[in-house]
Amino acid sequence: MSANLDLTRVSWVKSSYSGNGGDNCVEWAPSAISAGVVPVRDSKDPQGPALVFDTAAWSAFVGAMRRGEFL
């Protein structure tokens, strides 16, 4: 993972799983995948912090969500 990743220069995309009502919106930066990471942030606070996961950890999380492991 690059310690010098500048998240102010990435393009953020709203998750397709976020609703259209403006609540609980998550954004991620697909362009950062080339650096081996998946940044995620709350769209209601775009200047706030972002969580940055390595791609393997993010894939494992998404897979567990799809299998219903967190219900």
What layout of secondary structure does this protein have?
Elements: E1 13-14, E2 26-28, E3 37-42, E4 50-54, H1 55-66
Antiparallel strand pairs: 1-2, 2-3, 3-4
InterPro entries: DUF397 (IPR007278)
Protein name: DUF397 domain-containing protein
Pfam family, one: DUF397
How does this structure look, described?
- Residues 11-66 form the DUF397 domain.
- The chain is of the alpha+beta class and 71 residues long.
- The protein has one domain (7-66).
- The protein has one helix and four strands.
- Strand 3 and strand 4 (50-54) form a beta hairpin.
- The longest helix is centred in the C-terminal third of the chain and has 12 residues, at 55-66.
- It is flat, with a radius of gyration of 13 Å.
- The termini are far apart.
- The model has no long low-confidence stretch (mean pLDDT 87).
How much helical structure, as a percent, in the residues?
10-25%
Shape: flat
Q: β content, as a range?
A: 15-25%
- Rounded average pLDDT: 87
Give helix and strand order, one letter per element, not per position: EEEEH
Using DSSP, what is the number of strands?
4
* Class from secondary-structure proportions: alpha+beta
Quickly count the helices: 1
Total domain count:
1
- Any low-confidence stretches, pLDDT <50, length ≥5? none
Largest sheet: 4 strands, antiparallel
The termini sit apart by: 30 Å
Main sheet strand line-up: 1-2-3-4
| Radius of gyration from CA coordinates | 13 Å
